[in-house]
Amino acid sequence: MKKTFKGGAHPPENKEYSNSKPIEDLPLPDRVVIPLIQHLGAPSKPVVSIGDEVKTGDPVSEATGFVSVPSHSSISGKVISIGAFPHPFGKDIQSVVIESDGEDRWNEKIKFDEKYMDIPVKEMIEKIQNAGLAGMGGAAFPTHVKLSPPPPKKIEIAILNGAECEPYLTSDHRLMLEKTEDIIKGFKLIMKILDAKYGYIGIENNKPDAIDKMRSITSNEKNIEVVGLNVKYPQGAEKQLIKALTNREVPSGGLPMDVQCLVQNVGTALAVYEALAYNKPLVERVVTVTGSGIKEPKNLRVRIGTLFKNLVDYCGGYTVEKGKLIMGGPMMGLAQYTDLIPVIKGSSGFVVMTEEESFLEEPKPCILCGRCVDTCPMKLLPCTLGTLVEYSKFEMLGEYNILDCIECGSCAFVCPSKRNLVHLIKYGKLKYNEIRKKSA
Ligand code: SF4
Ligand code: SF4
């Protein structure tokens, strides 16, 4: 059986810029900007004041509910400002700015606990929340919430997402090669928390070295299987990954837990291991800095809150004066107008493309070719959704399941008229949700 899903697209992979570059540690920055929103859910609340001394790993904010996580200082030094700063989400967001003392003194509670496997499950989930974990594949949903399916939901199959189908990005690929054992330990902890019977590790076939390495480390694990997947975008989207690995289909409007599955990214699995075995909060991550607009593309381990400009400088700077800056990949990433924004927990990459490379062109009218329909992995009618939004027929969007759109961008990529379908659909979702709220 072919391990894939119906629909999808084949954008140029462009991974050769950085896939053979081992992870390098970025030198510590002079200051970091730690936003209080780096996750989906309620913003966190500051617990430090200007002038406070902090160590690496100290909390600078606390969660404000179950669907919320704290943020931590990623360097040691002094809090010099708390206020609104530019953020990758496109608006200014309340952040804590810390100036480094150059010593990188870590919180003393961060140390190895050899009995980490024996921690009771409830305590594990609390520790994961206190460590500030949010999905590191890009969506940044709080990890402890995902690991707490509400009764009577049960998770039978845990899935480790190593697909990394987004063009250009190679941070997960490098992590799978360089942190294989720790990732597997994290995955086993996830399976233990969920009491999952089986574990699948899904990796696209364009990463044969990662598949081999993962297989060699799991060869004695009877209930864990490493599966090579067809190279197709968006193979790493949760519902598509579940379909490819288990042949189960998440129902319209449903969640992976509705088919007894749960998906976690490889970077998140590593963070789970470090949170439980070392009590280490999420203060650093691997970021791919790449694209033809970057002089020396690299995979860098960087402290959260470091400005992207520092990463680009370390990579030799830009090759073009006016590149197109994207946090994440070109299909699902967020376009940026500046590099003076901080790395956040969901920053898997910083891609700089030249104007010619960018997929964006002036949109033309729909020619009803149907390519977007054939491509949509969620079996939607993107052209119809786009037209309904253009004609402000927001109340009709529910009939066409607009909320099932995973914003993967496949439809816009294949559209010969270069219609800005994702932008229209995102706007349509917003308006449709407003209507639903009002009628409720
Ligand atoms: S409609 Fe949504 S899910 Fe379908 S291809 Fe377009 S962006 Fe992807
Ligand atoms: S791919 Fe573009 S032109 Fe073709 S039907 Fe869809 S929106 Fe219209």
List keywords for this structure.
binds iron/sulfur cluster, six-stranded mixed β-sheet, single chain, Rossmann fold, 12 helices, 16 strands, 440 residues, globular, 26% helix, alpha/beta, four-stranded antiparallel β-sheet
Give your account of this protein's structure.
- Helices cover 26% and strands 18% of the residues.
- With 440 residues, the chain is of the alpha/beta class.
- Among the domains are: 116-278, 3-Layer(aba) Sandwich (Rossmann fold); 371-439, no CATH class.
- Helix 3 (171-178) runs parallel beside helix 5, helix 4 (180-194) packs across helix 7 and helix 10 (382-390) crosses helix 12.
- The structure holds iron/sulfur cluster (2 copies).
- Residues 375-378, 380, 382, 405-411, 421-422, 425 line the site of one iron/sulfur cluster.
- Please name the fourth-level CATH homologous superfamily of the domain at 116-278: NADH-ubiquinone oxidoreductase 51kDa subunit
Reported CATH architecture of the domain at 116-278:
3-Layer(aba) Sandwich
Low-pLDDT stretches are none
Largest sheet: 6 strands, mixed
Give the assembly state of these chains: single chain
